[in-house]
């Protein structure tokens, strides 16, 4: 008897990195975000403990140059791969974190794909983003010597300037506390139908 595996309910995380020759725009993005922070130092509180988040915006500003178009293109490609309707930007916001700042476990309701683009990550140990599965696998599995993409409960990505991560909006995630006194600057975004 032949056994045929069927893969159901996979979780995809897409990653892309801006080519070095295009990273000069990151300085303009950083200045733009820090200017908004200076004008509104309180920001908003959502999943963040410490740190600063801007309010939500509906379209990428000109100061982001081609980054907005690149993110649109990447999301369009991701949506096509998973066979969902064409998606459009629902909102984006900016984040500035420093020592000890973190984001608690959360997801992004009301959208299909979400993501983060790292604008400025000047130091090591600035807080990985950690994705967590939510099917209670830990209850069923014994302690294993090695975990893989089938048995693993979490996976994390290190922030790097010019890196973008796209993931299903329902995938729970958190950001570990930064261990650096310098600022990690990013934008987060949601795309929906």
Question: Would you summarize the structure shown here?
Answer:
The chain has 193 residues and is of the alpha+beta class.
List the helices and strands and how they pair.
Blueprint: E1 14-17, H1 25-39, E2 48-49, E3 52-53, H2 67-81, E4 88-97, E5 102-106, E6 113-120, E7 129-132, H3 137-140, E8 154-157, E9 163-168, E10 172-175, E11 184-192
Antiparallel strand pairs: 1-9, 2-5, 3-4, 4-11, 5-10, 6-9, 6-11, 7-8, 7-10
Walkthrough of the structure:
The strands form 2 sheets. The protein has a 6-stranded antiparallel beta sheet with strand order 1-9-6-11-4-3. A 5-stranded antiparallel beta sheet has the order 2-5-10-7-8, with no helix packed on it. The protein has helices at residues 25-39, 67-81, 137-140; strands at residues 14-17, 48-49, 52-53, 88-97, 102-106, 113-120, 129-132, 154-157, 163-168, 172-175, 184-192. It starts with 13 loop residues before the first strand and ends with a strand. Helices cover 18% and strands 30% of the residues. It is α+β, with helices and mostly antiparallel strands and 193 residues long. It contains 3 helices and 11 strands; from the N terminus they run E-H-E-E-H-E-E-E-E-H-E-E-E-E. The model has no long low-confidence stretch (mean pLDDT 95).
Features:
193 residues, alpha+beta, Jelly Rolls, 6-stranded antiparallel beta sheet, 5-stranded antiparallel beta sheet, globular
Q: What percentage of amino acids are in beta strands?
A: 25-35%
User: What is the CATH C level class, in words?
Assistant: Mainly Beta
Arithmetic mean pLDDT: 95
- Class computed from helices, strands and strand pairing: alpha+beta
Named CATH architecture: Sandwich
Find the CATH superfamily.
q2cbj1_9rhob like domain
SSE string: EHEEHEEEEHEEEE
């Amino acid at each position: 008897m032949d056994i045929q595996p069927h893969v159901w309910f996979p979780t995809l995380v897409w990653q892309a990195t801006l080519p070095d020759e295009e990273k000069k725009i990151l300085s303009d993005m950083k200045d733009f975000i820090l200017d908004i922070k200076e004008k509104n130092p309180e920001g908003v509180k959502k999943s963040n403990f410490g740190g600063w988040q801007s309010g939500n915006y509906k379209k990428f500003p000109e100061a982001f140059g081609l980054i907005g178009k690149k993110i649109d293109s990447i999301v369009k490609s991701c949506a096509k791969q998973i066979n969902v309707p064409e998606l459009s930007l629902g909102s984006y916001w900016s984040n500035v974190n420093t020592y000890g700042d973190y984001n608690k476990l959360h997801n992004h309701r009301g959208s299909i794909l979400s993501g983060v683009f790292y604008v400025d990550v000047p130091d090591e140990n600035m807080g990985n983003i950690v994705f967590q599965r939510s099917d209670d696998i830990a209850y069923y599995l014994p302690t294993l010597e090695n975990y893989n993409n089938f048995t693993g409960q979490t996976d994390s990505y290190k922030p790097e300037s010019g890196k973008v991560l796209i993931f299903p909006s329902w995938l729970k995630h958190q950001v570990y506390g930064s261990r650096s006194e310098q600022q990690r600057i990013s934008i987060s975004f949601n795309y929906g139908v």
